[in-house]
Amino acid sequence: MKFIAAACLAGSLLLAGCAGTTDSSSSGTSAQSTASPGGTGSKASGSAAPVYPGGPLTPITSSEAHSQSVVTLAPPADMWDRIRRGFKMPNLESDLVRDREQWYASRPDYIQRMTERSNKYMFHIVEELERRNMPTELALLPYIESAFNPQAISSARAAGMWQFMPATGTDFDLKQNIFRDDRRDVVASTRAALDYLQKLYRMFGDWQLALAAYNWGEGSVSRAIAKNQRLGLPTTYSDLSMPAETRLYVPKLQAVKNIVANPQAFNTELPLIANHPYFQTVTLTRDLDVELAAKLADVRLEDFRALNPAAHKPVLLAAGTQQILLPWDNAAVFQRNFDAYSQGQYASWTAWVVPNTMTVADAAQRSGMSEADLRALNSIPPRMLIKAGSTLIVPRGARVKEDVTAVVADSGHLSFQPEIVNRRTTVKAGRNDSVASIARRYKLAPANVAEWNDVKPNHAFKRGYSVVVYLPVRAAPAARVGSGAAPARGRTSASTKGGSAVKATTTRGGNVAKSSSKQQVVREKRGGTPAKKKR
Fold first, then answer.
1. Which segments of 328-452 does DSSP mark as H helices, in order?
2. pTM above 0.85, yes or no
3. Strand 414-418 relative to strand 349-353: parallel, antiparallel, unpaired?
4. Residue 386: its H or E element
5. pLDDT for res 321
6. In whole angstroms, what is the distance from residue 379 CA to residue 314 CA?
7. Which one has a higher pLDDT value, 503 or 328?
8. Residue 4 confidence class, pLDDT cut points 50, 70, 90
9. Does the structure show a pLDDT above 50 at 490?
10. How much is the mean pLDDT over the chain?
11. The dihedral sign for the CA sequence 187, 191, 197, 198
């Protein structure tokens, strides 16, 4: 029996020696990590490849017992630890990196604010990066783009946490209309940003060049590479000629990466971000006021908006906003309160499609709002008519039972045309001038010219007679909300085509005349300039 036990022990030692023995050439080859076909980087540290022994079996020694890589079974302590484990991009070493490190390290309050703000979004971003096998350094990119502010908008009209331009957002299926702007949506914009970054990496095969293209544009980076190739120069990020903003772009990210990798070295304390989802999605089945949604979820209004920043208006349309984000523990609270809600309508606002072109005053009267409130709620600039087919947010009456349709929620737009302001003007009649000739010259309706001068439509004026007409003196170009076009400022004066024999003098007095079939004449207050629309 003792002999059998001794034999078993000897066999165990031989097998252990087999597991601990490795050939240097074979282990070096097997330890190299390779990216999966759909991946974009090497494996994260901690995922060591298996080691297979080669050569004759020998007993394992105590020194060899600790020489092999061991995959840790401990989960990341927090999100910072998880991000560090997924670093895959080559480090950039330059004076610009050192400069940006000092810039961030000397502003601990700024780092504290933006890292605390990122607490709501970091888990979701890292999850998406890991699912795509992308470097987790990219989770730090919104610190550079927007300081993790989903409501941020640049002077160039880039918007959201990932700072998408309107056209690029459209290219990546980010909906932009009067109800919502998905460039600000947490989930949609993250999906689009990672799609774009993967596309750029496939184009350039280098993460630093991909990031340069994200900031500068893929065409600009391609041209810079082609220029260096023609000159026989290297084509790395550091070798290309680029604008100062792009030159600093990757050093900024590298500086933030270095601080996250070793905050103690920069005398920085990173706030705890738990390795746990911050939010979960809830399906929206009815149109719902934003304030009521926050109340039903038992969260502050500002916290609700931070998770749902794409919503423009005070109402969420179920047909266009099919899901909302709520803090993890509040999703169940919302659903329970939503199902039990019995205090009236879920939405006090609805969408109204304007049937014909009208003034803001007329639209306000028909919708039961004051003109000032209608302008403020729908961002209507001064001196504009609302064009037929435009969509306005208006109060929802108690009799309205249906929610806004998917067609309106998806394609609703707000278009304007210039409101023509006319002023009383007198012109001297020439030889053989009549109501018809004056009307033809100034492109007016003969009936209006006759009415303004209290004469018959076939009346002929004496030479030198002061004929009263109302001519447009101010107009602004038409605008469409959601198109990115802002109304121009300035004045345009009425022309006197073909009227060389007629001298026109303009006065500021007089009433505005009735509209004609060819030209709409409306009342308008004097003074002021068109306001610039916010997108």
1. 331-340, 360-367, 371-378, 406-411, 435-441, 446-452
2. no
3. unpaired
4. strand 384-386
5. 87
6. 13
7. 328
8. low
9. no
10. 82
11. positive
One-letter identity of residue 79: M
CA angle 192, 195, 196 (to 5 degrees): 85
41 — phi, psi (to 5°)? Answer: -175, 175
Active site residues: 145
With 70 as the cut, is the pLDDT of residue 70 above it? no
**Helix 207-216 and helix 218-230: axis angle, to 10°?**
120
Report the alpha-carbon angle 173-177-183, nearest 5. Answer: 50
How much is the pLDDT for 383? 86
Share of the chain above pLDDT 70, in %: 75
Of 354, 338, 353, 352, residue with least CA distance to 289: 338
Hey, how many other C-beta atoms are within 10 angstroms of the C-beta on 36? 9
Amino acid at 197: L
Q: Look at residues 168, 410, 480 and name the one whose alpha carbon lies nearest to residue 159.
A: 168
Tokens matching residue 111: 């780092």
Residue located via tokens 């004929």:
467
Amino acid identity at 327: P
Say what angle helices 186-204 and 122-131 make with each other, to 10 degrees. Answer: 40
Confidence label for 187 from pLDDT (cuts 50, 70 and 90): very high
Q: Report the candidate in 363, 357, 397, 398 with the shortest Cα–Cα distance to residue 377.
A: 363
Taking each helix axis from N to C end, the angle separating 207-216 and 244-261, rounded to the nearest 10 degrees, works out to 130
Nearest C-alpha neighbor of 143 from the set 111, 181, 184, 105: 111
Q: Do residues 30 and 49 make contact, with C-beta atoms less than 8 angstroms apart?
A: yes
The predicted structure's pLDDT at residue 486: 40
Is residue 429 pLDDT above 80, yes or no?
yes
Residues in the chain: 535
How far does Cα 348 stand from its chain's mean position? 27
For 414, phi then psi, to 5°, come to: -130, 110
Amino acid, single-letter form, for residue 250: V
Burial of 413 (0-12, 13-18, 19+ CB in 10 A): middle
**Any idea what DSSP says for residue 329?**
G
Q: Which two tokens stand for residue 290?
A: 């934003």
Give residue 65's Cα distance to chain centre: 54
Tokens of 449: 């010219």
> Phi, psi (5° rounding) for residue 470?
-115, 120
Measured distance CA(324)–CA(339) in Å, rounded:
16
Q: What is the mean pLDDT of residues 194-208?
A: 97
Closest CA to 58 of 123, 13, 95, 102: 13
The H-or-E segment that residue 421 falls in is: strand 421-428
Lowest mean pLDDT among 41-55, 205-219, 274-288, 505-519: 505-519
186 contacts 123 by C-beta, under 8 angstroms: no
